[in-house]
Amino acid sequence: MELIKSNIDANTNSEHKIRALKYSWGDVDANLKGPYDFIIANDILHREDLFAPLIKSLAHLSDVDTKILLCYRRTDAKDVDVMARMTVNHGPIQTNRLIIKEKFLNLLEKEFKWTQVTPFTKEGECVVFLVHKKP
Predict the structure, then answer these.
(1) CA–CA distance, 93 with 83 (Å, rounded to integer)
(2) At a CB cut-off of 8 Å and minimum separation 6, what does 118 contact?
(3) Within the chain, what is the greatest distance between any pair of CA atoms?
(4) Averaging pLDDT over each range in 21-25, 78-82, 88-92, 108-112, which range is the top one?
(5) What does the pLDDT read at residue 34?
(6) pLDDT above 60 (res 125)
(7) Does residue 116 contact residue 129 with C-beta atoms inside 8 Å?
């Protein structure tokens, strides 16, 4: 959190209302009042068991005018060993992100519409999706 707060301070002025908060997906009772203009989430598609709480949070914190940017990075072969070790400490992590991305997008489509903003060109690059709540 300190790094992101430092980045916000370094890249904005006092006219902007940007803040970073620690938040657990699915916690609709947290002290966050939506809807927000923008929601940005990166590197979030590791655990299938967190898809429903993530989508619940997006629905709670957004409205049809909210712009949501979601980014995922397809796993490089070198990341598989690291992710396998993470599984021991953090629960099951899906290493085939193309499969997990499809599962996530299928769930997301129930309440949201999305478009892929950046093309997928090679392993390790981020793919960004622009997401809007359905009316």
Answers:
(1) 7
(2) 125, 126, 127, 128
(3) 44
(4) 108-112
(5) 86
(6) yes
(7) yes
C-alpha span between 18 and 135 (Å, rounded): 26
DSSP assignment of 5-59, as one string? HHHHHHH--TT---------TT-TTSS-----SEEEEES--S-GGGHHHHHHHHH
Q: Give the pairing of strands 112-116 and 126-133.
A: antiparallel
Q: How far apart are CA 54 and CA 27, in angstroms?
A: 9
Question: Within 13 Å and on the Cβ side, how many CA atoms surround 93?
Answer: 19
Q: Report how far apart, in Å, the C-alpha atoms of 99 and of each of 38, 83, 110 are.
A: 27, 16, 18
Comparing C-alpha atoms, which of 88, 65, 82 is closest to residue 124? 82
Q: Is the pLDDT of residue 84 over 90?
A: no
Strands 38-42 and 67-73: parallel
Instruction: Say how far apart CA 53 and CA 47 lie, in whole Å.
Output: 11
Share of residues in the chain with pLDDT > 90 (%): 28
Taking the C-alpha atoms of residue 58 and residue 114, their distance in angstroms, rounded to an integer, is: 13
Residue 57: the pLDDT is 93
